[in-house]
Amino acid sequence: MATATAAAPAAAPSIKAVQQPKSLPAPNSDFYELADVLTAEEKAIVKKVRIYAETRVAPIINKYWADDAFPFELLPSFKELGIGGLGYKGYGCAGGSQKLFGFVAMELARVDASICTFFGVHAGLAMGSIYLDGSEEQKQKWLPPMARWEKIGCFGLTEPLVGSGASRGLQTTAKRDGDTWIINGQKRWIGNAPWCDLSIIWARDVADNQVKGFIVENKTTPGFSVEKIEHKIALKVVQNGVITLKDVCVPEVNRLQGGNSFRDTARVLRMTRYFVGWGATGVQMGAFEHALKYAQERLQFGKPIASFQMVQDLLAKMLANVTACQCMMVRLAQMDDDGKLGDHHAALAKAFCTAKSRETVAWGRELLGGNGIVADYNVGRFFADAEALYSYEGTYQMQNLIVGKAITGLGAFV
Ligand SMILES: Cc1cc2nc3c(=O)[nH]c(=O)nc-3n(C[C@H](O)[C@H](O)[C@H](O)COP(=O)(O)OP(=O)(O)OC[C@H]3O[C@@H](n4cnc5c(N)ncnc54)[C@H](O)[C@@H]3O)c2cc1C
Fold first, then answer.
1. What is the pLDDT of residue 413?
2. Left, alpha or beta for 378 (phi > 0: left; psi -120 to 50: alpha)?
3. Given pLDDT bands bounded at 50, 70 and 90, which one contains residue 33?
4. Is the pTM of this model over 0.85?
5. Residues 6+ apart with CB under 8 A from 293
6. Which of 3-7, 216-220, 381-385 shows the lowest per-residue confidence on average (mean pLDDT)?
7. Cα distance from N-terminal residue to C-terminal residue, the chain
């Protein structure tokens, strides 16, 4: 956004045939100056995150993306950003408004959707489950080390055979035996799971058929194992896993005390769908800025391709999508900060911003011609990653069914 310097995107092979005769405007994806809704203090934090993403993440991320690997080398510096537990009050968390939480997510995604997702899985899904559904003791115990990034979390809801239908019947079971719960089942797609410390596992209590949440320590719990999902074509930097739970024993003190039905899971999803709306907006900003810079530099027929009418049409359409999503998300942030955010509000934004994101990155890819499918030019990475954002945290269809129920009063879920 306009709060920070517009540093050059990650180095891509040179595309200039000759030097440009005049200096052209630097790409700016905050066309309506929405950063002005932030306070000076918030702007400073967003600026710090932007500089970090541009100087530490951008130079290395394409290599990690191509290698299907997570950049552990970033973790120590990531911790120093002071964004652990952003949006949560107390428990050693960074605090701050939902607006700030959103702008930070957008800044991270503007450079890389995987790093934004890593942040969202840990700080949103995992910490959020404890913050929203944990007891006071559980918050005191788990949130401070998570806010310090000493313990990294993941969130296990989706299963190999149960995705969109999670609210209607998880196959992973939890059976109480005195003060211990025995958990059996599998979870699929779980971000951070192959290497993180804690998993929030959602399982169906066989006694009352309700979904309950459990904090499971990955590295020390017998019967808990994770296999990395290989050969992804999107969000390749995020390590997703299939978790197998075989007679895993979890003490009652590690059952989320406020997580007694899928309604409580859904409260976490509301917050994280809001987060994905911001992430999908950031992805579009990144694709737009890279595409614009490319168009200013790439010469065809002896002129920058940015001077061609049909290329300007593509760029204007991209910017319109970016700006529409930003406006939507800023309003949603205001509603969230005012305690008015409903599931249907978050669902509409998640569906809209991720759908627009697919459109925007596809236009960006098109604008780069053949170079649009080479990761070194960045837009190809945004193009692929937008696909995952469109499907995770509930697919487009699921979000629209939530909106449909709210506006018609009639549930259409099968
Ligand atoms: C990169 C990535 C990261 C993820 N990270 C996590 C994570 O950290 N933790 C986690 O728990 N999960 C995670 N997920 C899982 C994600 O939330 C699910 O993929 C998603 O909810 C969809 O479930 P599914 O893939 O099983 O698709 P399905 O539910 O099998 O859906 C397939 C298609 O059918 C459509 N469909 C299904 N039911 C209906 C219906 N009633 N009406 C209309 N259409 C319908 C869907 O919209 C979709 O188009 C991740 C997924 C990905 C791809």
1. 87
2. left
3. very high
4. yes
5. 8, 9, 27
6. 3-7
7. 42
DSSP string covering 220-287, please?
T-TTEEEEEPP--SSSTTS-EEEEEEEEEEEEGGGB-TT--SHHHHHHHHHHHHHHHHHHHHHHHHHH
CB atoms within 10 A of CB 58: 21
Residue with the smallest CA separation from ligand 1 atom 45 is 397
Cα of 392 vs centre of ligand 1, distance in Å, is: 6
Residue among 189, 232, 390 to mutate when testing ligand 1 (max atoms within 8 A of CB): 189
> Distance between CA 199 and CA 195 in Å, rounded?
11
Residues 386 and 393: beta-carbon distance below 8 Å: no
The phi, psi pair for 247, rounded to 5°, reads 50, 45
Asked whether 156 lines ligand 1 (CB < 6 A), one says yes
Token pair 């788990």 in the structure block, residue:
142
- Measured distance CA(237)–CA(225) in Å, rounded: 21
Residue 348 scores a pLDDT above 70: yes
For 107-164, what is each residue's pLDDT tens digit?
Answer: 999 999 999 999 999 999 999 999 999 999 999 999 999 999 999 999 999 999 999 9
Quick check: CB of 157 below 6 Å from ligand 1? yes
DSSP string, 148-163: TTSS-EEEE---SS-S
The count of residues in the chain is 414
Q: Count the helix, strand and coil residues of the chain and give each as a percent rounded to the nearest 5.
A: 55, 15, 30
Helix 379-391 with 262-297: angle, nearest 10 deg: 160
